[in-house]
Design a protein that fits this description.
Elements: H1 2-21, E1 35-38, E2 42-46, E3 52-56, E4 62-67, E5 77-82, E6 90-93, H2 99-109, H3 115-122, E7 128-134
Antiparallel strand pairs: 1-2, 2-3, 4-5, 4-7, 5-6
């Protein structure tokens, strides 16, 4: 029941953010120009310049969300995917096309995925990092 309430709250926050962002011209949103796709083996992102990044799910060690103070007029939420303890190997902004579907997939398939941390990240207006998932 608690997980359902958290999920409903998260969806509400996403809808509110999208409503606010759609007050601007949505065709100009750089975030939506990032195309996220996935299957049971890989997560991939194509950026607005056409560069494709692919990460095998089995190699993931950590996922976090970086927030900045740049919103709402610039992207301020960034998903970061790691395959080791060094730099992120894939980064894309919140609001990317396919983000919601990937979120649902990760919630359903990544043990100990922290939906509460996702909700907190979506509400952040400062420079912060939120650990969303870490391989056990």
């Amino acid at each position: 029941m608690k997980a359902l309430i958290i999920l409903i709250c998260f969806i509400f926050v996403l809808m509110l953010v999208n409503f606010i962002r759609n007050k601007r011209n949505p065709s100009l949103l750089i975030e939506a120009q990032f195309l996220v796709s996935f299957d049971n083996e890989n997560i991939s992102v194509i950026d607005p310049d056409g560069k494709d990044s692919i990460v095998p799910i089995k190699n993931l060690t950590k996922i976090d969300i970086l927030t900045t103070e740049d919103g709402p007029w610039a992207p301020d939420v960034f998903w970061r995917f790691f395959i080791d303890d060094n730099d992120a190997v894939m980064i894309f902004p919140g609001g990317a096309t396919g983000e919601s579907e990937l979120l649902t997939f990760m919630q359903d398939n990544f043990k100990n995925f922290d939906s509460v941390a996702v909700i907190k990240a979506m509400g952040s207006t400062s420079l912060a990092t939120f650990k969303i998932w870490e391989h056990a």
